[in-house]
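dumping this here before i forget
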Amino acid sequence: MDFLLGGCAATCAGFFSNPFDVIKTRQQLHGELLARAGQPPGPSAATPSNPYSSVVRSFRSILRSEGVLGLQKGLVSALAFQFAMNSVRLGIYQTAENCEWTRGATSAGTLVRSIGWGGLSGVVGSTVACPLYMVKTQIQARSHGKYAVGYQHRHTSTLDALTGIYRTHGVRGLWRGYPGIVTRTAVGSSAQLATFSTCKELFAQLDWARESVALTAFAASMVSGFFTCVFMSPFDVIATRLFNQGVDANGRGLLYRSVVDCFTKTLRAEGLHGLYKGFVPNYWRIAPHTILNLTFWDQFKAWRDLYYG
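structure:
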């Protein structure tokens, strides 16, 4: 039941956060490996040729080129990824909490164990859902003309993408870029679940928090979303680029060989800014998604306990 509730909570949250996921993906891929000549430092430096220089401009560009449905590009694969990944991730973490494996002798010990279990659950979840994340990224990146960024894959649907990749590169092709998502999810999951659990315990000592499960989860999620975004953003950029790059006839990436190769090439060409591209929409995606995901999760568990004891 814990696995099912985790998946359902993430799917509900994913519907609302997907437009920011599309914008984040476009910003992370725009200007890939191009030096920022003449640009001042900062995550929102705009150029006339950049249709994704800000969140507002990104919304306008997508609406102008693809209409309202463009903001929900890759929704099917995104929701499938959220369900597959978080049913496993949150289910494992909840099981660890139920067995008190996340509890230490001290508060510091509890935090360390929470980080460890959060990372482990994220690794297992991302392993299961890796192909869906790759397809989601490739579909979200697809556009046309001056709005196109990165390598343009020609998938017509999630099923078409999965079957096409399998026919061309086999099972191995479906897990191409796997180290990128494992690193991303391990870091993000550790930060998210550890800070969420810690904040819930701290807020539970306050009178206003004890009156509402949803309010406590909402407040803890706001803090958790911030820390998740700060720690995960560089690895999120790397995962996006690893998954979206074109491949040769042998299935090897045309731009990057590994996580380390992608990290060093991005840092060398674009500086630290390159590793934090899409930070603002990423936070706008992560914060509401974390709030909705973990709030739905806590609320679903409360309803389960109420009706099933």
